[in-house]
Amino acid sequence: MAPMLDPPRDCPLCPRLTAFHAANRRAHPDWHNAPVPAFGGLDASLLIVGLAPGLKGANRTGRPFTGDYAGDLLYATLLKLGLARGDYRQRPDDGLTLIGCRITNAVRCVPPENKPTPAEAKACGPFLVREIAALPKLKAILVLGRISHEASLRALGQKPSAHVFGHGKIHVLPSGIRLIDSYHCSRYNTQTNRLTPAMFETAVRLAAEL
Ligand code: URA
Question: pTM for this one?
Answer without folding.
Answer: 0.96
